[in-house]
Amino acid sequence: MHDLSRRAAGPFVAINCAALVETLLEAELFGIEDRTATGVRGRRGKFEHADGGTLFLDEVSDLSLSAQAKLLRAIQDLAIERVGACGSRRVDTRIVVATNRSLEELTERGLFRQDLFYRLCGVEIRVPPLRSRREDILELANYFLSRHRAVRRLEFTPGAADALLLYDWPGNVRELERAIEGIVALAHDDAIDLDDLPPAIRGEYVDILLPSLTRGETLRAWGSRYARLVLERCAQNKRQACRKLDISYHTLQAYLRYQPARPATSCHDAPEWPEESATDLAASRVAETIDDELSSPDVRRGEGASGQDETKEKASRTRAPARGHPGAAIAQQ
Known about the structure:
Strand order of the largest sheet: 1-4-7
CATH architecture of the largest domain: 3-Layer(aba) Sandwich
Largest sheet: 3 strands, parallel
Number of helices: 15
Number of strands: 9
CATH superfamily of the largest domain: P-loop containing nucleotide triphosphate hydrolases
Low-confidence stretches: 263-271, 273-277, 299-307, 320-333
Strand content: 5-15%
CATH topology of the largest domain: Rossmann fold
Oligomer: single chain
């Protein structure tokens, strides 16, 4: 915000309010006059240093109530008074504050002054946590990696990138930055793999995938397991499950019929995908179409019982054509 504003040419002064000593707060913020005490030299405070620029107060919620009272007047009047001085000084400073706690909630609990809260909440910008904007994780991770290009040129493997996206990042961007620094220091190769990630980050990802990888499970087994789970969530409604999975009715039927005989130990031992004849394929497609007709509002309202009986009879003839019947030859073609 400072670099893109009209105050970009002015100074940017940042203060960590949690690190300010209560007894030295006024001297740090407002400055102190020369010879106020023995051996004390006069100096300017942070407000004066930020004159014509931006003053950034980080973790403002950690200020005590007495410190908040001292800060209130300076923000209200944009005038400060040095320790030991007799008059005030005007400053032209834009004030930006940041906190990881809700100031509104702290105000309701009496831990933050209400008058100071309304002085600060002119323009409020809420930054969601990193877990709520996962599309930014890889972009930020690659940005932090680019800082160390002079030392090492590293890249994430697809598995490591997926693990970063699955982690919840309770420490937000700071945790991600520190994790990347540790990865750069400990990575064995130029390609960052799962083994190079901290245990807390790769834990959930490895716990889910590694057992299946050890057992040699195929992608078909995973797809079948997931299709059954979605069908159960859809109350055994196959049409709704097809829409959620974005697959055809025939593909769903194939997933549901798949039953691995035993865990695969290698790519040669993997169970075969169930084969379907052309007759089964044509019958399943016609059955899907007839199911749609039966469930449509027009059929339920207009056709009545006789119309539905005709349609069901048509379905039975289509699904099981007799041998030697012309319909069987058409289905096989």
